[in-house]
Design a protein that fits this description.
Blueprint: E1 4-8, E2 12-16, H1 18-23, E3 29-33, E4 38-40, E5 48-54, E6 60-65, E7 68-74, E8 77-82, H2 86-97, H3 107-110, H4 121-137, E9 144-153, E10 159-160, H5 162-168, E11 176-185, H6 187-203, H7 205-211, H8 213-222, H9 230-238, H10 250-264, H11 266-269, E12 275-281, H12 282-298, E13 304-307, E14 311-313, E15 321-323, E16 327-331, E17 336-342, H13 363-378, E18 382-392, H14 398-401, E19 402-403, E20 413-420, H15 430-449
Parallel strand pairs: 1-8, 4-12, 17-18, 18-20
Antiparallel strand pairs: 2-6, 3-5, 5-6, 7-8, 7-12, 9-11, 10-11, 13-16, 14-15, 16-17, 19-20
Helix pairs in contact: 2-4, 2-12, 4-10, 6-7, 6-8, 6-9, 6-10, 12-15
Length: 451
């Protein structure tokens, strides 16, 4: 069995691997991008997954990771990328994004099955997303659609099927051909949900039975219980019923179910032999988590919290661009705004070396957020504050992280903020993370209250 290379997101690690050493030319860089794997929980944009260089010793390579967690295989080597801030924060983010109170969700308590060798962090994220999303939407039941039902009986059901009546019932023999339209569960969707449910229940049997008991029984009763092939997956994704606004959120559940099924049946689906696996963009999860927190606590009639509001610049030129600040908190009535970007990177407040170096604050991130702030300022908004939001690993000091001016403008603050995880070793409970969230929200709310 191939040795597993253990990594963390946004980190650099040197390991011994003759295979990878031979693949990388001297002085060169081997870049693997997200197209090598099944990518879940993110936009369909190709991003760097790993950068591999030759190390300081022969046979050693230096591996740089980015904003992904999961497991995949490349050229015979298995990579396992975990979340450096631990499962407590990860579970909290998943639950918060899905509008679920994770404090009542004890994974250890419900995890009756032993950890399996093929379990990856990305798969656990998908399992939890499947459970939480399906629980949230179970009040709607499973999508239904009108289907044509043909009858040949002694009683009229619906309306007469003229063509069938002429073919079958003349001369009349006591039975009438009729047709009715009835709402029935969409079989393809039921079958996909069943295929994923069986796999998820093997991993978290008690949790599925506790959270999904009602809809679980419905799915198990009506599904065909056959192997879910690619055609069934495609038919479920494209079915007109989920274009209905009532059931539109089922799109994401069907996508998640498809990933779970395909990953657990790699041979049947013939995934790439050279590089196969499943990864999850944890940067996107961090961004949605912070947006959800701020939306829940700060959004009001005056101040609206928006996610990825599009900015279009140079509209008439060939080099026109669209930009998407992660979070804006906007007061349209008074034309005031706070602009924030979420960065799931290490923040220990390390200073840069030499002029123009930002240390832990990445140069590109710094200029990006300042570009957003400048744009809104030129559009006539009073920019109250702008800045970057991180998982913070050092003790937070607001006096060092909240500047009272922005490029000399004393009406605007530039901030570095986020969730304080400085006691990450002891932060094993969700309750402690919730306390850090409250302090973070108070600081951001304070920017508005100072006006």
């Amino acid at each position: 069995m191939a040795k597993e290379i253990e990594l963390c997101d946004f980190s650099v690690k040197e390991i011994h691997s003759k295979k990878l050493y031979k693949l990388v030319t001297s002085g060169g860089v081997l870049t693997l991008d997200s197209s090598f794997c099944e990518l879940t929980g993110s936009e369909n944009i190709v991003k760097p997954l790993l950068e591999i260089k030759r190390g300081h010793q022969e046979g050693y390579v230096s591996i740089k990771t980015f904003g992904f967690v999961g497991r995949f295989t490349y050229s015979g080597e298995t990579f396992d990328i975990t979340y450096r801030f631990g499962t407590a924060l990860l579970n909290r983010m998943i639950a918060k994004v899905n509008d679920f109170d994770v404090k009542t969700l004890n994974l250890d308590k419900h995890n009756a099955a032993e950890k399996k060798p093929n379990d990856s962090l990305a798969m656990l994220i998908l399992y939890m997303n499947f459970i939480l999303k399906l629980e949230k939407l179970s009040i709607l039941g499973v999508p239904k659609a009108y289907q044509r039902i043909e009858h040949h009986a002694d009683k009229l059901k619906g309306r007469i099927d003229v063509n069938a009546f002429i073919r079958k019932d003349i001369p009349f023999r006591g039975k009438i051909s009729s047709v009715s339209y009835e709402q029935k569960y969409v079989q393809e969707i039921l079958d996909v949900l069943y295929g994923a449910m069986v796999l998820v229940e093997k991993r978290f049997p008690a949790l599925v039975q506790e959270r999904l008991w009602g809809i679980r029984n419905l799915i198990y009763h009506h599904a065909n219980k056959r192997f879910v092939d690619q055609k069934t997956l495609d038919d479920a994704r494209q079915h007109p019923s989920i274009q209905n606004a009532l059931y539109s959120e089922f799109k994401s559940i069907i996508e998640i179910a498809g990933y779970i099924i395909k990953y657990n049946h790699t041979q049947e689906y013939k995934l790439r032999a050279n590089s196969k696996g499943l990864i999850f963009d944890v940067s996107i999860l961090w961004e949605h988590y912070l947006y959800t927190l701020l939306k829940e606590h700060i959004d009001s009639n005056l101040w609206r919290v928006k996610h990825e509001e599009p900015i279009e610049v140079y509209r008439e030129q060939f080099y026109k661009r669209r930009m998407y600040p992660d979070i804006v908190i906007k007061n349209e009535k008074e034309k005031k705004i706070i602009v924030l970007d979420a960065k799931s990177k290490s923040m220990k407040f390390a200073k840069g070396i030499g002029d123009g170096q930002a240390g832990d604050l990445d140069r590109n991130d710094f200029f990006q957020i300042n570009t957003y702030m400048a744009y809104y300022s030129k559009q006539g908004y009073e920019v109250i504050a702008g800045g970057l939001l991180y998982p913070i690993e050092a003790e937070y000091d607001e006096s060092k992280c909240h500047s009272s001016h922005w490029f000399g403008n004393s009406n605007t603050q530039f901030i570095v903020d986020g969730i304080d995880l400085s006691n990450i070793e002891s932060k094993t409970t969700v309750e402690e993370i919730v306390e850090s969230e409250k302090v973070f929200i108070e600081r951001i709310g304070g920017l508005i209250n100072q006006i």
